[in-house]
Amino acid sequence: MTSTIAILLLENFLGLAAFGSADMFKTANQIADVRGDEIMPFQVRTYSLDGEPVQSSNGIVVTPDGALEEISAPDVMFLPGIGTTSAPQCTISTNWFRGVAERLQHLSQNGTIIAASCTSTFLLAEAGLLEGKQATTTWWKQKEFCAAYDGVELAGDEILVDAGNVITSAAGTSSLDLALHLINRLEGPALSRLCARFMVLEENRGLQQPFMIPWHEKTRDETIERADQWVQNNLSSRPLKVQDLAAFLGMSTRSLLRHFKRELSMSPQQFILNIRCERAKSQLEYTTTPIAKVADDLGYSDENAFRRSFLAQVGVSPAQYRQKFRK
User: Strand 76-79 to strand 113-117: parallel, antiparallel, or no bridges (unpaired)?
Assistant: First the structure.
């Protein structure tokens, strides 16, 4: 039986998420054809709010197959992320979004799987589809997501979360993981595995933690910038104490903690750990320096301490990280 996939193209949608996912479903059909299957597994159709052409975040204009109101009962409703430097600006009372929310709610109640990647996970949360459920979102908007939707259990480290009738994925190419997961769920692991190999995509990537960049939302704050420079210059010190950082900045430890919580939503100790971790990533990616030497250069007491800290921060060991990201 053919599964129908409806891709909703909102203004400034992420081209990679829409086109890449459509290509993944097309690949599944091509593999099925080569195998001699009588029925193609997927039928993909695209929709915009009003059926009119819509522009993607990369400037490509797409003429959809239909309008939102024409979506009846697809097996999957797929929402690509929206290209934005901030969270999508919508509420349940926003005129354009009210119709989207109502359609999503109706489809979900009638058995359609609702799938969203990147910033479109905000739309699902705003429509109430994630309330009381576990979900993930793009790593650089997790703070805003948590603040806006405290009824959602955010699994921020995960690339993909399947909560039954609602599936969410993280940033960027996680939309391909989402498409692959849907192929697995609807047609089975054999076809999804073949699609992954054909598209040169690693299956079950699991975590987005190794890809996170702490400085994406770094505040242009003089105190933070001075702290950053001081930590960078003293990474080899053992131990690197928050009290010493506070003294350098001419602040009390308590004032420093309040400032970091207000500006970065983290403690000074976590700030130091993040910088150490980023320097370690760079060493692992661009040099062949032995891991024990990396640990020593960055002020860790020994290699085991470095390994434990790195694993807690990144989700993989230093050796695993080097194997995956070595330039």
Answer: parallel
Q: What's the CA gap between 287 and 244, in Å, rounded?
A: 30
| Residue given tokens 């997790």 in the structure block | 142
Rounded Cα distance between 273 and 267, Å, is 10
From residue 116, how far is each of 3, 6, 208, 238, 309 by CA, in Å? Answer: 17, 12, 16, 45, 32
Comparing C-alpha atoms, which of 238, 327, 317, 316 is closest to residue 282? 327
Instruction: Check: pTM over 0.85? Answer yes or no.
Output: no
> What letter does residue 2 receive in the DSSP assignment?
P
Sign of CA pseudo-dihedral 92, 93, 97, 100: positive
Distance CA 170, CA 159 (A): 5
Measure the CA–CA gap between 80 and 101, rounded to whole angstroms. Answer: 15
Below-70 pLDDT ranges, the chain: 85-95, 204-220, 327
**DSSP tag of 85:** S
The model's pLDDT over 239-253, given as tens digits with 9 standing for 90+, comes to: 789 999 999 999 999
Report which DSSP code applies to 22.
H
Of 322, 281, 286, give the one whose Cα is nearest residue 298: 281
The pLDDT of residue 207: 60
